[in-house]
Amino acid sequence: MTRADRIAALKAAARERILVLDGSWGVMIQREDLSEEDFRGERFAGHNHPQKGNNDLLILTRPDIIAGLHDRYYAAGADISETNTFSSTSIGQADYGLESAVWDLNFEGARIAREVADRWTAKEPHKPRFVAGSIGPTNRTLSISPDVNDPGYRAVTFDEVYAAYREQARALHEGGVDIFLVETIFDTLNAKAAIKAILDLQDEGYEPLPLWISGTITDRSGRTLSGQTAEAFWHSVRHAKPFAIGLNCALGADLMRPYIAELSRIADTLVAAFPNAGLPNAMGQYDEQPHETAHFIEEWARSGLVNIVGGCCGTTPEHIACVAREVAGVAPRIVPERPVALRLSGLEPFEVGA
Length: 354
Description:
This protein is an alpha/beta fold. The protein has 13 helices and ten strands.
């Protein structure tokens, strides 16, 4: 299949059924109990920064583990698997002194995922598999000062964040992803830098790809870290005409439901959600069992709230297998047609005439 064929197949599949995303990568990599040497491999054996915990680096040093995880998630029933590139920007990799490896991380991460997805599509042509290029939020924020004594201070500029995302997006595109997934958004201004970087690729002659935008409601306040409600967040990014809008991380499915319901009501595009396996316990572990996560997500599906579901922190191939079984045969959410109106956003949404 060409990429155009895959995108057409993705859109067709989304009209027919609820699509399933993969689950957590961090929890599965932790289970490998890897050493500093595993992370470094031969290529970075003499590097002068510690690398243990730099999960994205395994794309280059342990590609067998990364390919194996894609394989396990596709086998569990996932239609879409993410590249292992959540922190693969020059900003994210600066903590490890690996800014120079960013292109390779993204290109190879996409290539590995593409190879595994194509193998599954060849084996099960009735269920094509797709690759989402994972673009994380970085560890810098454009809307909030890191210095409580200087509210106007920023550790990074918009142009710097834009440039970091542009490099990542170009490499993911050339590596063969089908979708850009801008995820775990806690600061909408960071997301806008990523969105601009992705949309600007078209001006450079790159084929346009579907864009999936996924925010994070950080706690029971119902807001992102930069202060927006779910509806205000949607108003802020709707101009990008995303293939899907949704939420992930921070909350389990039970606590995330009201915010997914809100997006389902207002968004005139697909709605996606991949919650954590509940909230972490005192040791930072996730106790919610696969059937429990699947039970919550099945209720979302039968209530007509979602088009794409999956898992975030704490979820495993077993969680995704349960989710896939529970949503199989359930009709996807019907995308509503909303009247044209002037809709604005700050921290709160505003609609003229509402």
